[in-house]
Design a protein that fits this description.
86 residues; mainly alpha; elongated
Length: 86
Amino acid sequence: MRKEYDFSKGKRGAVLPSAGKTRITIMLDDDVIAFFRARAEAAGGGYQTLINSALRAVAVQSSGKDSEPLTVARLREVLREELHTA
């Protein structure tokens, strides 16, 4: 093992970025996170994957020509519907 290492050209972040994915920071309500974590634990998957699936379902549902764009208000509405059905 060396006494010193040169990290001057090092980069932060994932060593191998995932293709087709972008890392973001998002603020979600605590109860929304708790809901998705509980569902993920029951299903044996990741809560972020479930959130991504819920967002994808809304995006696909509203991707018609005459549909409205996904807004913050609509996203909140969908998340509340998901929480209510659980």
